[in-house]
Structure formats: structure tokens, C-alpha cells
């Protein structure tokens, strides 16, 4: 006997009197059967258009409200003589101070977020992403929990590196100081990390140890007297970016900047993006409800809305020009089909 | 007890009736068979009444308990696991799970092992539950009791499983035999007993078994105290019809034959008790050895699904290859410059010095990572869905047979969707289409036809013509009475019968009880079983007032005397019941009783009738001496009896096939030949089986002369005997005088006609496989409306293999299998075989779907079948409603699952491109675990269980919808590719939109930018919304269940994200507080989700909008019609369209009606041309007629 039948038999006994099953089987079970009539099609597209276009406009306005100043500096900040061999320059001990200026195109209301943007930097590379130890970051007792951190796990003969791993090791170390009209602008570096990072993921008793002590020096060094949960630059950096072009929050300028103002930035160009031809940009940006400057969302909304509107119009026209009667039975294709005569087969002997 | 046994003994012993001689088993050669005993294969020794001797070797045989379980507690795990990993997909997942433990894995091992354990666990749980029920059923069987002789000489109740070989058991009336028994004695003195073998071979007739003379006396409990005997016989084997063995009893050896063997699972009937010794027990019994499991079959759709899975595998391989090549190119070219990866420390996966090796390792990692392309949960959801579908099929009240209290049972749930693609039905005849019961319907005596001359086709045709013309009239607002009368008169000129039909059709519809002597009301069940005849000219003894009553008398005498039946007392009434070799004879005997010729007694040479004497009108008893009986055979096609009545006159009474009788008529014997022939052809078209009756008066001298020749021929021994007999009968069966013909209906099962009609409209071809003779088969063809007179008939017959000496039933079975195989192979279509008996088992097993009729008690066919129906007619609903639904459901399920896994899996691949093919996954491991298992599985299951494109009523009204399954348009390759494309589009839209929305700039007012985790969670949200909304677009039938599952799944994602995020970061890791802290608070997240979901669905929605506008599918139109309440407001039109959709079929009742209407119309137009002149054609009425739908 085949398998299921007994189960089914047993079910049958149990459900013989089950009113729910019976009502499901019978037609009195309330059901809705939507049908795609032309009216529905047209109104759906129209509805999408009606909803999407305003949202698109709102998003676009939200995005246009944002004032963003971007300054690319990775070439500019190399002395002209060294530009043929940028990698050698960046790895040397030469003075890497660099002055650039940014012109504010439009009044920027505080807070103004300062970002650095890296390009062609694969923070999402698997080898990179995995090279960290969350346990170690969180509690001092897990200091030696560095198995995932190779090769930046242990400093030669001095024990575990805290924080270990490639991510921490390659911490961004360009610094910026801003001034306008020779008056320096304070950059608030507090409150740039996620709250959960400060409170739960980075321990307050965990202090950097042997950092950048594993032979090669990668990026920034950390002040060993400050616990990790106050090292906000590290926390921001360790939130690895999903895409090869990314911005990281550097700090906040908490004064308004006026239109046409020129901001002078003294930056220390330490970070080596030259090996892999990465660009470096300094970004000053305000935010609106949709975040930073990004027209894509608004444009996408408008595009989808427009397409829907066009489709809605198109269907209306087709409906008027070449109407199809709803439920027109003559369209039943089964009618057109003449099937071969069904034959009876008589077998006898 | 004595009372009843005496009564039984008073009856005629069937075994003594010559006509049953054919039922006696033929042992090929008893002497040579006896020599085999003791040889290999015939080594079994049984010590009867000494079961203790069978406790030790070498005589220790298997116990009587039977087990059908697949697993035991020990074997369950390995066996069930092995079964699970025979599936390619599961094997792949096992492999990835194994690899996930290695460092190659892109995700945590749990991500891969979890779903696999879940899926395999559910399947194994199902297996375990099923096996548990098998165990319970075994327990039930093994715990039945039987009286067996205990040590102390008493017969006590013993459980079946405790019975052992050698036990003497006493089986009572209507009990089943617990094992294969050697019959020792019975309640009858001559040691016979009757058994019903329905459970073995599906035959309803009783079989006679007979004990050896030597053991006859052992018919009391006490007599067994000294009984000892030894049986030597064949080893256990599955052959039900053979047995070789002997019995050594009181130092004599008696040969045994199958007559002495009572088989397990057959039932004792008409016998108070029997004593038997157990010969074979448990798994050694013939029925268990012979038991046929239904072979596991896979549906076409599932086989195609495998191919779809292979397609997905190749996609998987392709993108893995792309990843691997991309990875090695990147590693080789410039990755070494990426100092932040610190590649000097050699990592085999990113080794610039050996990029090809790294590429290969990346390939394996990619195979694991992109595994989400393969819908792991699909198999398990399909299993769950099919089980629930089967439950719905079983619970369908409309397929519940109140007569037998049985409902349809899906015995295997894995063929549900195959029911929606059946193209050829191979049907058994007897017991499936017909009840194996004959009804006396019409007769033609001396040139007059009795029993009505209008059939149901005429009635239906006239009804339809009337409704059509009425509808047409009302539609052109021309409802004045003149046109109606004109129309009626027009009909009246066509044909007198047609007119009758039309008028009667009206009457019949209005008042079915109208006293209408000549119209046999076909819809009404006959009061007397086997007799469905109404004609006031004959009934209630009215025939004696007719002028030709002599012919009538002779006619009825032929009916009452020329047969091999025996009367059976009914007890309640003075009417008798009859038992005869063929149901036709029973019908004749019942009919002759109704006409006043009651056959009420038979002895070896005397037949007694109670006749109605035409002159006095009273019943008189007349005895007829049976002189000779010339038996029926398929070559002779006739049967005769020679009787001498009380006056000493000798008559030869003959019945037979019309052509045979007509050839043997005397010169003056065919007085009514012409009218009789025309009646015959009418009867034949209605599908009745016809027989001609004739008689001949014999002179004594002539008879005696012939009798001596005949007797001599009979006593001849040798090969020429047959020829001599044939010659002798030819001499006497000539110069006959034709009396008339009778028409009996091989009664169709209830609803068969309508069912075949609907199935034919659905485009299903019906093949009738029968072992009957050609004429019978054609009759059935006509009566099922499979054949029409205007059709060309093809007969395919297979000549019998002459060399094979197999018993008839085996050969029969053999042929059925061959034909089924042939049909399957050459048409390549899905075949369904339906049958009720053991002879159909082969074809049921061989066909794509086997259906057994469970109405009768025979279980062999049901055991071998995939579905069991109590009645043939339920096939209509099973195929057209449930088959159609299940086909669509499973198709949509598979397509959607493919879509959803591509939509999800491809985003992983796209992300790889952005990570330089490094093999990192975008989503948290847990998101990947829950995607297939929790967040998207329930809507799929609700789709698979509850989806209905149209309601069951509409399915039945438009059987042509079934053709969607025949043409497989729902699961065609173009659709598969379409859905794959849809999945690719959805994945691309979701990925690109998210990349552009969340790149670089801040996504919150607080200036934060999104990291991998947040980006992944946002993208995942978009996918959950998209795939769940997509299924909402597919579903056409919403109940609260679908809504709950779809929107519940979306909601579940948020709940999951909240719960997961609330866990301490040690567990939730990157997902910590994700919804509450970061993405949930960003308006951009919600706005983006909305945009992406709509944008990803827009292509599909546009596609179906265009499709519904330009080339809508059948079910869509019908839904529109239904939606527009067209079935209510335009009832006529609805009906007409329904009919239009049916028109293309050529067989079935409706087709016959159509054909009849056509012939009416042809007649009409011919008449019209002759009646109306040119001026008449100018009248508006004529115009309206010619443009009316009747002439279209």
C-alpha cells in the first residue's frame, strides 16, 4: 500500500465533522476574486502615477534642500614633484600638510556634516570584512580572541593587538582642520558613531594595545589611554561600507556657513589610496529628511510615476480605440480549436 | 443452525448443474504434478493438527502476522535518510552543508544546515507518520480472531497473528480466512463450501470449494482429537489458481488440488462453518505473496520540475563560473596593490601568486553561496500542499457515494496535478462503466416493437431546439403566436417521430409522470431490478388480448425455458429471483416472470413454469421435459433447448445473435423479418444488446433420429468430438421460425453517460478495453454515446497468442498491460486507467494514473491504484474540477518558487560584482535561513492549497477549461523562461535601485551613512515585499487565509528583525538594533521600499494587463463573465456559450444530441424547399429562420 493513504485515511476520520474544512470546501467560505478589468488596469496605473509623482517631487525637493560641497584632493595634496611616484611619497616621512579651500555655494545651516569619501576602496571585500573580532572589541577579557584577525592578530612577542584585524589596522588617518577668514572652525568629533556601537559593541574597559605594532603600519594610530567606546573614528570606520565608493562621517561643524564663504582646510594627507588609485574627497554637507544629497530617489519616483501615467493613458486609448467586451465569450480560444475525433478503442480476442 | 443448514441443502447444488462445469478448476495434469512433490520448489511439509511440530526447525515456518511497514525503529533513520538524499536537490544541499563546515563556506554552517535539517526533517516526519498508520492497520489485521483448536481439544478464539502452520481452525459464515487453509470439512454433508474471492480477484460470483472424501467426516469439534495428517505441497508462491500437493491421512495418500485450498482474505459464504488446517501462514500466503503495491509514480509536472531545477542548476553553475573567473582576474591584475587586504599573508582564496587555484576555490564558495537559486523548500512545500490537496479531494462532499458510504480517496497524493493533464482514459467495462446487470428494455414480437420508441437523445435534442428557438424569438422580439404555430407545423412535417419527440419533450419536461404508455421514461429507475420496460400493450397481462398471442406465448416460452438459470426463493413475495451464468439470462427470466411466465423449478430433466393461459387468463403450472441442451459458445453464438411439453409436442427453442438466427430461418419462418430488422437497428443504435428468438416444432421421429446422432457425438472421446457435436447441432438448429428480438441494456452505472459527455468535452479521449466480444463492445460504445451511427468505426483487435497456455484471466491482464504500455508509448500522452477488478490491476499499475473503483468490495484494483472512486461518475469532478485546480496550483507554485529564489539569489550575485568577486554575502546569515523557510513559504502553501481560477461549478460548466492542462500552457517552457526573466528583472530592479539610493550620501537626517548590514537589511526588506506582493498578483482567489499568510509574512519580517535586533549583539551581531536604531527611523528606508516594490512589480503587472487586454486566457474571460454577473443577467447567452465551447467535441451525449439536431435540420430544410415557394422566402419569418442560430 502506498504511503500517504493511511495518513489520509486517518485524517479523514478526524475531519469528517470538521466544520471549518467543510466550509472551506463549500462555496460559502467568503472569498474575493479580483479580476483584471481594463478599468482596474487604468485606475491602478493612474493611482501609481498620482501617488508617485508627488512623492518624487517631495524627494527631489528634500534632496535639493541639501547643500553639499565636495573637494577632491588626492592629487592636489601631493607636491608637484612627487606626483610621478605618489606611492613612494605617501609612504615616506615627508611633510604631508596640504591646504585646500572650499567655496560655500549656498548658505549651509548647522549641523554641517564633514565626510571623507574614498573611491575604489573595497571595504566590502570578504577578506577585509571578516578580519575583526567583535568579542575583543567588546570586553577586555576576550582580548586574545583574535583568530579571525589574521594577519593583524598578534604583535610580535607582545601579545594580542587590540583592536585586531585588517579593518582597524587600515583606519583612515587623514585629518582636517577648518578655518574661515583665519578663524578656525571647530569640528565636533563626538556623536558621529552609532549609539549602539558606543554602548554595546565597543567596550568601555577595552583600551588599544599593541595597535599598529605588528610590523607594517597600516593607517591611524590610537591613543592607548582612551577606551574603545570613545574612539568614534574607529567605530565609524569599522562599520564597513557596502559599496566601493563610500563616505564616512568625520565630524560636525556646528555653525552656519554663509554663501560664497571660503573655507580653508588644512589637511594631513597621510592615508595611502595611491597604491590602488583611490580617490579621496572631502565633503561638507547638510541633511534633510531624506538624508544627504541624492536626486536618484526623486527622479526614480517621477520616472515610475510618469511611466505609469503613460501606461494608464495608453490603456485608456487602446480601450477606446479597440475595445474588448468584458467577458466576451467569443474570445474563448477553446472554441476555435477543433479537436481530433476521440476514438474508441475496442480490444477483443 | 440445523434448521438453516437443512434449508440450504434443500436447494439445488450448484456444483451439480452441468452449466457450471466450466467453473471447475483445470489442473493441467494431476498425475505429473504429483511427481513433483518432494522436489525442489515442492518441499513443504505440514503436520495437520500438530502445530507444536512447527515450533522447531526445519518445519518452523513464518508466523501468521503480516507487516506492511517500511521501517522499524532501527532501520528508520538510515533508510529514510537514504530516501531523502536520493533527490538531486537534497544531495546538493547535503554537499553544501558538508562544505559549509570547511573554511570555504561564505556563510555560517548553520545557514546551510538549518534549512536542510528542517526540510529533511519534515519529509521524514511525514514518512514516520505514514508508517505509523501502516503499523496500526497491520495491528488491526493481526489482532482479528478466529476459532482455533487448542491443546485441550477445545476450539477457542485466537488472534490471527498467533495462528501457526498445522493449526486446525473453524471459520464461520461471513468470516475471512486467516491464512491459506486446507479445507477438511464443512457444514454441508458433501464437504462443499462457498467462498467469495472479491478481495483477491474482484470477482463477485461465489466459488465452490470441496473437501476430500476422506476428511468429510471431520465435521465436529470432538472428532479432531485423534486427527493427524501430513500434507506435502509446493513452496509458498503467488499463484492464486494453482496448488500442487498431497495429503497423507490414515496411511493413504490423496492428491490435493486448488479446490481444497481456502485462500487468506477470501470470505466464507452460504456455509455455516468449515474446518481447515493451516498450510501457509502470514507472508507465505498466496494473497500476501500476490499483493500488488501501487508502484510509485511521478507526475509529468514533477518530472518537468526536475528539468526546471536542472535549468536553475545551470544558471547557478554559470554565475559561479563568472564569479570564479572574475575573481581570478581581479586577484591576478591589481589586488596585490590593495595594501589594506595584506595579501602577503597567503590566503588560498586570494593568492595573487596562484590566481587559478584561488579562482577554483572561489568557484566552490560561489556554488554554496548562490544555492539560494535552488528552491530548497519547494519539495517540502509541494509535499505538504499535495497532502492537503488530497485531503480536500477526500473531503469533497460531492464525491461521496451515499449508497456505499464511501468517498473518493487519493491514495497517493503525489499525482494530484497529473489529474489535470489526463488525455486518454483507458476504462474497463464491466463493473466500471456498467453494473454487470442487464435490464430488459424492449422487444419486438411478430413485427411489432414494444417498449417505447423514443430515446433520450430525441428528447434532449427537441428540448434544446425548443429553447434555442425560444431564445431566438425573444431576442428578435417576434413572439407572436402565429410564428410559433407556424414553426410547430414546420416541425410537424419533418417526421412523425421527430414531432412526437418535440411534443413529448415538452410534456416530459413539464410533467414527467404523465401517463404516456409508449414513451419509456429513461431517467426513472426501474422498480424491478433487471426489468425496465413499460408498455401497456404487454404489461399486466394485456398481451393476451392481442391477435398474435400465439407468437407471444412462444416468445415468452423461449425466454422462460432457453437458459441455464436456477430460481432462488426470495421469501417475501411470490416473485422469484434467479441465478444464471450470464446477467442477460437473469434479465430474461425476470422479464418472463413479469409477463406471466414464471420459471419456478428446475430439476435435472424437468423445468416447471407457471404460465398464463391466454384462453382462460389464469395461471397454470406446466412441466417441460428438458430433452437436450445445446450450450452457448462464442463460436456458435446461439443456444437451444429441446423440450417436450405436457401434450407430448417437441419444440426446439433457440436464442442467439440475430445474424445467426436469420441464417437458419425456414422459408416461411421470416414473415416479420423486415420490420424486425429495422427494429433491431434502432435498438442497436441505442446501445442495447439484442438477441433473436426463434423456435421449431419437431416431429418425434425426426427428433429421435437426431438424438441418437447427438448422443453418439457426445460420447465420442477424442479430438473429433467437437466437430461431431457441431455438426449434430447444425442438423437440428435449422428451419427456425422467427419470433422476434429482445433488447437488453447492459445497465450503465449511475451518471456514466453524463460523465463521459463532460470528459469528452474536456478533450479527454476515452478508450474502452474489454475482453468481451466485438458486438458487446460496440453496444456499450453506443450506449455510452462514445459511438454514433454516422461515425466511422475502427476496430483494433489483437489475435490471441496460440502458444501461450496461460489461463484466461492472466492473458487478459497481460493484454491490458501491453495495450496500456502501447498507448503510453505511442501517444506520449498522460493516460489514466480505471477499473475495478483484479484483471485491471496490470493496466492500473502501468498507466500514469491508476484509478480503482471501490464501490464493490474487491480490493485488488483499489490496492494497486493511486485514486479510488466509489463510482465511475466521480471521475468527472475528480478530473475536471480537482485535476484542473491541482494542476494550476502546483504549476503556479513551482513557477513562483523559481521566481522568488531567483529574485533573492541573484541579488547575492550582483553584490559579488561590487565586492570584486570576493565571496562575501550581503545579508546576515539568519536572514538567509528564514527567507525560504519562514518568510516566503506560507503564501506559497496557501496558493497551492486554496487557489481556484474558477469555481467548481464553472469548471463543470466549461469542461474545455481542462484543455489548459492538456496543452500544458500553465507550465510550458515559455512560461518557465518568462518567470525566470521576471525573477531576473525583479532582482536587477531591487539591486540597482538600492545601490543608487543608498550610495555615498547620508541616508538619515543625522548624517549617518549606511554600512553593509543596513544596506543588506534594506535590500532584504525590498525583496520580502516584492516577492510577497508578487504572489498576491498571482492569486486569483482570496480568502482571509491568503491575506493572513501574505501580509503576515511581510509583517513577520519586521517582527523577526525587531526580535533579532533586540538580542544582545553577541547573538545579533551586525543586526543589533537595526530596525529600531538605524534603518527604521530613516524615512528614506520606507520611501525606498515602496518605490522598489512597485517598480519591481511593474513589468509583470504591465505584462498581465496587456495580456488580459489583447489575448486573455480562457479562465480570465470566464471569470470576467462571472464577474459581470453574465450568468445571471444573460442566462440564455451563458448557456449558449457554454454549448459553443462544447461544440468541438465529437463524442458524448451532447455530441449525439447535436448530431440529431443536425439531422432534424437537414430534414427541415429539405421539407421547406418543397413546401415554400419563392414568395414564402420573402416573409420575415423565413428570413428570421435562416438567420437564426439554429441554422448557423
Task: Write a brief caption for the model.
The complex is a heterodimer of chains A (349) and B (1192). With 349 residues, chain A is of the alpha+beta class. Chain A is built from eleven helices and twelve strands.
Structure explained in plain terms:
Chain A: Its main location: membrane. Chain A: It is found in: Membrane. The complex is a heterodimer of chains A (349) and B (1192). Chain A has helices spanning 4-15, 19-25, 38-64, 86-91, 126-129, 134-138, 166-169, 195-201, 232-238, 296-321, 333-336, and strands at 68-72, 97-103, 112-118, 154-155, 159-160, 175-180, 183-185, 187-188, 246-253, 262-268, 280-285, 346-347. Chain A is α+β, with helices and mostly antiparallel strands. Chain B has 1192 residues and is α+β, with helices and mostly antiparallel strands. Chain B is built from 41 helices and 32 strands. In chain B, a hairpin with a 6-residue loop joins strand 23 and strand 24. Chains A and B meet through helix 1, helix 2, helix 3, strand 3 and helix 5 of A and helix 5, helix 10, strand 16, strand 29 and helix 21 of B.
Q: Helical element count of chain A?
A: 11
The pair of chains with the biggest contact is: A-B, 125 and 163 residues
- The oligomeric state is heterodimer
Side-by-side strand order of the widest sheet of chain A: 1-11-3-9-8
Low-confidence runs of chain A (pLDDT<50, min 5 residues)? Answer: 1-23, 333-349
Q: Write down the Rg of chain B.
A: 39 Å
How many distinct beta strands of chain A? 12
Amino acid at each position: 500500500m502506498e504511503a500517504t493513504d493511511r495518513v489520509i485515511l486517518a485524517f479523514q476520520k478526524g475531519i469528517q465533522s470538521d466544520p471549518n474544512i467543510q466550509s472551506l470546501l463549500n462555496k460559502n467560505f467568503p472569498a474575493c476574486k479580483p479580476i483584471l478589468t481594463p478599468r482596474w488596469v487604468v485606475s491602478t496605473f493612474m493611482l501609481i502615477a498620482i501617488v508617485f509623482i508627488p512623492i518624487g517631487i517631495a524627494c527631489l525637493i528634500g534632496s535639493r534642500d541639501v547643500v553639499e560641497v565636495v573637494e577632491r584632493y588626492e592629487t592636489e595634496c601631493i607636491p608637484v614633484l612627487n606626483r610621478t611616484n605618489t606611492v613612494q611619497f605617501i609612504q615616506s616621512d615627508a611633510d604631508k600638510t596640504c591646504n585646500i579651500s572650499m567655496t560655500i555655494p549656498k548658505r549651509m545651516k548647522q549641523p554641517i556634516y564633514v565626510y571623507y569619501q574614498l573611491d575604489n576602496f573595497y571595504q566590502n571585500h570578504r577578506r577585509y570584512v571578516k578580519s575583526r573580532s567583535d568579542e575583543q572589541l567588546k570586553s577586555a577579557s576576550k582580548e586574545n580572541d583574535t583568530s579571525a584577525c589574521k594577519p593583524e592578530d598578534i604583535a610580535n612577542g607582545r601579545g594580542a593587538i587590540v583592536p585586531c584585524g585588517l579593518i582597524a589596522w587600515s583606519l583612515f588617518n587623514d585629518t582636517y582642520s577648518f578655518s574661515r577668514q583665519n578663524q578656525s572652525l571647530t569640528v565636533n568629533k563626538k556623536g558621529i558613531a552609532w549609539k549602539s556601537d558606543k554602548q554595546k559593541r565597543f567596550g568601555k574597559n577595552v583600551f588599544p594595545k599593541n595597535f599598529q605594532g605588528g610590523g607594517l603600519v597600516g593607517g591611524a594610530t590610537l591613543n592607548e589611554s582612551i577606551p574603545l567606546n570613545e574612539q568614534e573614528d574607529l567605530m565609524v570606520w569599522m562599520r564597513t561600507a557596502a559599496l566601493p565608493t563610500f563616505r564616512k562621517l568625520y565630524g560636525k561643524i556646528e555653525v552656519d556657513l554663509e554663501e560664497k564663504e571660503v573655507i580653508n582646510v588644512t589637511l594631513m594627507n597621510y592615508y595611502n589610496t595611491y597604491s590602488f588609485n583611490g580617490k579621496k574627497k572631502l565633503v561638507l554637507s547638510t541633511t534633510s529628511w531624506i538624508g544627504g544629497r541624492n536626486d536618484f530617489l526623486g527622479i526614480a519616483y517621477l520616472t515610475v510615476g510618469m511611466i505609469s501615467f503613460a501606461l494608464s493613458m495608453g490603456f485608456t486609448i487602446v480601450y477606446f480605440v479597440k475595445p474588448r467586451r468584458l467577458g466576451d465569450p467569443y474570445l474563448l480560444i477553446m472554441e476555435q480549436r477543433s479537436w481530433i475525433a476521440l476514438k474508441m478503442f475496442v480490444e477483443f480476442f | 443452525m440445523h434448521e438453516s443448514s437443512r434449508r440450504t441443502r434443500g436447494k439445488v447444488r450448484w456444483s451439480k448443474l452441468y452449466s457450471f462445469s466450466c467453473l471447475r478448476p483445470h489442473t493441467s495434469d494431476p498425475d505429473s504434478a504429483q511427481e513433483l512433490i518432494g522436489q525442489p520448489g515442492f518441499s513443504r511439509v505440514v503436520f495437520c493438527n500438530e502445530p507444536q511440530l512447527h515450533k522447531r526447525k526445519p518445519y518452523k515456518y513464518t508466523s501468521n502476522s503480516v507487516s506492511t511497514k517500511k521501517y522499524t525503529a532501527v532501520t528508520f533513520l538510515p533508510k529514510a535518510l537514504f530516501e531523502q538524499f536520493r533527490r538531486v536537490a537534497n544531495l546538493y544541499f547535503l554537499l553544501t552543508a558538508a562544505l559549509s563546515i570547511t573554511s570555504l563556506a561564505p556563510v555560517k554552517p548553520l545557514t546551510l544546515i538549518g534549512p536542510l535539517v528542517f526540510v529533511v526533517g519534515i519529509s521524514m516526519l511525514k514518512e514516520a507518520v505514514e508508517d505509523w498508520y501502516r503499523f496500526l492497520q497491520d495491528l488491526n489485521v493481526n489482532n482479528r480472531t478466529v476459532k482455533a483448536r487448542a491443546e485441550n481439544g477445545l476450539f477457542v478464539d485466537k488472534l490471527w497473528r498467533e495462528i501457526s502452520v498445522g493449526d486446525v481452525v473453524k471459520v464461520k459464515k461471513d468470516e475471512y480466512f486467516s491464512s491459506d487453509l486446507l479445507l477438511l470439512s464443512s457444514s454441508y454433508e458433501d464437504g462443499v463450501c462457498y467462498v467469495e474471492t472479491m478481495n483477491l480477484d474482484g470477482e463477485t460470483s461465489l466459488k465452490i470449494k470441496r473437501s476430500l472424501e476422506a476428511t468429510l467426516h471431520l465435521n465436529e469439534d470432538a472428532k479432531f482429537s485423534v486427527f493427524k495428517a501430513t500434507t506435502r505441497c509446493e513452496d509458498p508462491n503467488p499463484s492464486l489458481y494453482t496448488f500442487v500437493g498431497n495429503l497423507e491421512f490414515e496411511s493413504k495418500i490423496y492428491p490435493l488440488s486448488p479446490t481444497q485450498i481456502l485462500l487468506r482474505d477470501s470470505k466464507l459464504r452460504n456455509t455455516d462453518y468449515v474446518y481447515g488446517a493451516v498450510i501457509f501462514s502470514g507472508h507465505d500466503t498466496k494473497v500476501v505473496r500476490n499483493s500488488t503495491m501501487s508502484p510509485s509514480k511521478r507526475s509529468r509536472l514533477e518530472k518537468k520540475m526536475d528539468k526546471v531545477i536542472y535549468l536553475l542548476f545551470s544558471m547557478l553553475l554559470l554565475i559561479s563560473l563568472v564569479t570564479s573567473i572574475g575573481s581570478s582576474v581581479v586577484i591576478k591584475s591589481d589586488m596585490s596593490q590593495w595594501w589594506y587586504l595584506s595579501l602577503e599573508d597567503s590566503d588560498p582564496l586570494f593568492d595573487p601568486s596562484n590566481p587559478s587555484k584561488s579562482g577554483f576555490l572561489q568557484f566552490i564558495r560561489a556554488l554554496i553561496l548562490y544555492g539560494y537559486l535552488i528552491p530548497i523548500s519547494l519539495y517540502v512545500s509541494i509535499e505538504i500542499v499535495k497532502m492537503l490537496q488530497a485531503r480536500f479531494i477526500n473531503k469533497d462532499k460531492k464525491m461521496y457515494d451515499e449508497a456505499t458510504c464511501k468517498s473518493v480517496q487519493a491514495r497517493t497524493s503525489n499525482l494530484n496535478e497529473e489529474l489535470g493533464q489526463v488525455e486518454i482514459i483507458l476504462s474497463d467495462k464491466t463493473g466500471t462503466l456498467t453494473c454487470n446487470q442487464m435490464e430488459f428494455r424492449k422487444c419486438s414480437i411478430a413485427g411489432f416493437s414494444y417498449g417505447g420508441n423514443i430515446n433520450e437523445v430525441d428528447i434532449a435534442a427537441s428540448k434544446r431546439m425548443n429553447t434555442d428557438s425560444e431564445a431566438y424569438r425573444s431576442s428578435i422580439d417576434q413572439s407572436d403566436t402565429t410564428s410559433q404555430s407556424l414553426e410547430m407545423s414546420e416541425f410537424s412535417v419533418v417526421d412523425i417521430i421527430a414531432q412526437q419527440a418535440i411534443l413529448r419533450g415538452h410534456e416530459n419536461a413539464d410533467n414527467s409522470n404523465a401517463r404516456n404508455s409508449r414513451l419509456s421514461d429513461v431517467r426513472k429507475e426501474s422498480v424491478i431490478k433487471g426489468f425496465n420496460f413499460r408498455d401497456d400493450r404487454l404489461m399486466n397481462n394485456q398481451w393476451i388480448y392481442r391477435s398474435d398471442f400465439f407468437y407471444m406465448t412462444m416468445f415468452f416460452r423461449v425466454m422462460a425455458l432457453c437458459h441455464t438459470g436456477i430460481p432462488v426463493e426470495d421469501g417475501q413475495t411470490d416473485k422469484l429471483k434467479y441465478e444464471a451464468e450470464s446477467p442477460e439470462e437473469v434479465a430474461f427470466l425476470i422479464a418472463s416472470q413479469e409477463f406471466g411466465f414464471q420459471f419456478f423449478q428446475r430439476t435435472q430433466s424437468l423445468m416447471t413454469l407457471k404460465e398464463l393461459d391466454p384462453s382462460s387468463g389464469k395461471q397454470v403450472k406446466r412441466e417441460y421435459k428438458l430433452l437436450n441442451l445445446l450450450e452457448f459458445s462464442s463460436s456458435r453464438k446461439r443456444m437451444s433447448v429441446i423440450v417436450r411439453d405436457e401434450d407430448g409436442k417437441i419444440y426446439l427453442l433457440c436464442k442467439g445473435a440475430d445474424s445467426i438466427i436469420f441464417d437458419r430461418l425456414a422459408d416461411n419462418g421470416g414473415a416479420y423479418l423486415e420490420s424486425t430488422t429495422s427494429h433491431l437497428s434502432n435498438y442497436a443504435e441505442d446501445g442495447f444488446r439484442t438477441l433473436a428468438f426463434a423456435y421449431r416444432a419437431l416431429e418425434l421421429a425426426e427428433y429421435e433420429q437426431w438424438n441418437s446422432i447427438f448422443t453418439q457425438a457426445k460420447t465420442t472421446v477424442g479430438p473429433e468430438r467437437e466437430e461431431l457435436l457441431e455438426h449434430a447441432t447444425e442438423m437440428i438448429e435449422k428451419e427456425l421460425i422467427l419470433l422476434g428480438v429482445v433488447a437488453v441494456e447492459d445497465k450503465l452505472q449511475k451518471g456514466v453517460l453524463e460523465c463521459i459527455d463532460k470528459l469528452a468535452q474536456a478533450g479527454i479521449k476515452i478508450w474502452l478495453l474489454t475482453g468481451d466480444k466485438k458486438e458487446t463492445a460496440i453496444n456499450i460504445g453506443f450506449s455510452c454515446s462514445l459511438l454514433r451511427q454516422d461515425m466511422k468505426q475502427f476496430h483494433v483487435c489483437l489475435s490471441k497468442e496460440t502458444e501461450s497456455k496461460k489461463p484466461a484471466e492472466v492473458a487478459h491482464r497481460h493484454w491490458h498491460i501491453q495495450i496500456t504500455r502501447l498507448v503510453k508509448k505511442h501517444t506520449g500522452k498522460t493516460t489514466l486507467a480505471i477499473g475495478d477488478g483484479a484483471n485491471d490491476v496490470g493496466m492500473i499499475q502501468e498507466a500514469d494514473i491508476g484509478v480503482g473503483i471501490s464501490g464493490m468490495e474487491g480490493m485488488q484494483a483499489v490496492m494497486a491504484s493511486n485514486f479510488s472512486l466509489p463510482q465511475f461518475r466521480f471521475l468527472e469532478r475528480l478530473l475536471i474540477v480537482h485535476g484542473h485546480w491541482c494542476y494550476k496550483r502546483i504549476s503556479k507554485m513551482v513557477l513562483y518558487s523559481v521566481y522568488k529564489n531567483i529574485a533573492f539569489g541573484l541579488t547575492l550575485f550582483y553584490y559579488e560584482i561590487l565586492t570584486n568577486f570576493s565571496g562575501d554575502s550581503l545579508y546576515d546569515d539568519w536572514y538567509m535561513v528564514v527567507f525560504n523557510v519562514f518568510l516566503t513559504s506560507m503564501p506559497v502553501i496557501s496558493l497551492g492549497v486554496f487557489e481556484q481560477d474558477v469555481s467548481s461549478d464553472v469548471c463543470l460548466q466549461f469542461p474545455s477549461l481542462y484543455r489548459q492542462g492538456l496543452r500544458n500552457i500553465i507550465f510550458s517552457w515559455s512560461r518557465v523562461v518568462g518567470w525566470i526573466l521576471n525573477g531576473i528583472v525583479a532582482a536587477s530592479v531591487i539591486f540597482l535601485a538600492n545601490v543608487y539610493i543608498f550610495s555615498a550620501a547620508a541616508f538619515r537626517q543625522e548624517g549617518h551613512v549606511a554600512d553593509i548590514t543596513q544596506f543588506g537589511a534594506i535590500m532584504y526588506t525590498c525583496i520580502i515585499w516584492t516577492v510577497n506582493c508578487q504572489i498576491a498578483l498571482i492569486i486569483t482567489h482570496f480568502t482571509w487565509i491568503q491575506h493572513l499568510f501574505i501580509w503576515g509574512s511581510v509583517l513577520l519580517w519586521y517582527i523577526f528583525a525587531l526580535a533579532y535586533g533586540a538580542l544582545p549583539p553577541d547573538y545579533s551581531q551586525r543586526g543589533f538594533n537595526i530596525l529600531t536604531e538605524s534603518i527604521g527611523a530613516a524615512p528614506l528606508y520606507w520611501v525606498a521600499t515602496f518605490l522598489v516594490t512597485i517598480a519591481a512589480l511593474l513589468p509583470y503587472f504591465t505584462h498581465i494587463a496587456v495580456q488580459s487586454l489583447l489575448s486573455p486566457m480562457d479562465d480570465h474571460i470566464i471569470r470576467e463573465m462571472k464577474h459581470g454577473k453574465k450568468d445571471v443577467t444573460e442566462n440564455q447567452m451563458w448557456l449558449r456559450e457554454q454549448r459553443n465551447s462544447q461544440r468541438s467535441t465529437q463524442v458524448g451525449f451532447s455530441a449525439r444530441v447535436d448530431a440529431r439536431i443536425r439531422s432534424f435540420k437537414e430534414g427541415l430544410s429539405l421539407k421547406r424547399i418543397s413546401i415554400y415557394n419563392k414568395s414564402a422566402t420573402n416573409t420575415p419569418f423565413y428570413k428570421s429562420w435562416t438567420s437564426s442560430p439554429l441554422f448557423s
